[in-house]
Design brief:
six-stranded antiparallel β-sheet; mainly beta; Jelly Rolls; 2 domains; 277 residues; five-stranded antiparallel β-sheet; 24 strands
Length: 277
């Protein structure tokens, strides 16, 4: 398996979350072609359940499925304030984008395909797939006969805001600045999921130990936190600080499909169930 590759792990079954930090979520992440086995705490799942009531009054997920499309590891975060950005790219057939070393992050292929050369490795990324790109030089080549569309999702130092963006990129989401005090020192695991919520469906109410961005690819999402309820349409997103209590709810009469980008301190719970709102 090539650098950073983790493909197509579908989740769509019953699961009840551990509510305390004494059990650990488990996530398989890849970097430098090897599997790292744990983020310390139970599994990277957002999963579908049949009922709406759980233990101690918690709300279970209904009509939700998720797919782990990629994962990777950051041995350390950049110094200073950070922010999360999503760039959108469109490439004509056979067009190539060369990239120098920059922050690690994820490619998510919306349409078409691309061939990536990452150091001495290569990978083909097709529509609906993700790929973790480590911080080394690489290229993106449209390997199809028609134009493609893809996103690059990453955590960046804030001084990047003042620098020119890649000429072929369009910024479709940026978070607020994230203060260094929000983040602990040490290694982090990055996870990219595709989540689908059916009409009338919703996730459980939960918290996550890491930074998180929800970005809607198609449909309409209601993101509920203690402070606000935000309705997000296609190509819009929201940032969630660590340990935010939140719930994702389908806001329309058609399925909503979104990316869930999570940056979790290694050794901390990935996710814990929270009391209902």
């Amino acid at each position: 398996m090539a650098i950073g590759d983790l493909r197509g792990r579908s989740r769509n079954h019953h699961n009840r979350r551990e509510r305390r930090g004494d059990r650990h979520y488990h996530v398989r992440v890849w970097w430098w072609g090897r599997a790292c086995s744990t983020i310390a705490a139970a599994s990277v799942l957002i999963l579908a359940a049949c009922g709406s009531g759980g233990e101690d009054g918690a709300v279970e997920s209904v009509g939700v499925s998720s797919l782990d499309v990629a994962g990777g590891r950051l041995n350390a975060l950049p110094s200073g304030p950070l922010f999360m950005r999503i760039n959108h790219f469109t490439q004509a057939a056979a067009a190539q984008i060369g990239s120098k070393k920059h922050q690690p992050g994820f490619v998510y292929q919306i349409a078409g395909s691309q061939m990536m050369i990452i150091g001495a490795d290569s990978a083909t990324v097709s529509a609906g797939e993700g790929y973790f790109v480590p911080g080394i030089e690489h290229t993106h080549t449209n390997s199809g006969s028609t134009s493609n569309d893809w996103l690059f999702v990453a955590l960046w130092p804030t001084d990047i805001r003042t620098q020119p963006n890649v000429s072929t990129a369009q910024v479709v989401f940026e978070s607020e600045d994230i203060a260094p005090s929000t983040l602990q020192a040490g290694a982090y695991a990055e996870t990219l999921q595709v989540v689908t919520i059916q009409p009338g469906g919703h996730t459980n109410v939960r918290t996550r130990s890491g930074l998180q961005v929800l970005f809607v690819l198609d449909g309409s999402l209601r993101a509920r936190t203690d402070n606000a309820t935000t309705v997000l349409g296609s190509n819009s997103g929201t940032y969630l600080a660590p340990n935010t209590r939140y719930q994702e709810i389908a806001a329309d009469q058609k399925p909503v499909k979104l990316l869930d980008f999570i940056v979790t301190p290694v050794g901390q719970p990935f996710e814990q169930v929270a009391p209902a709102f």
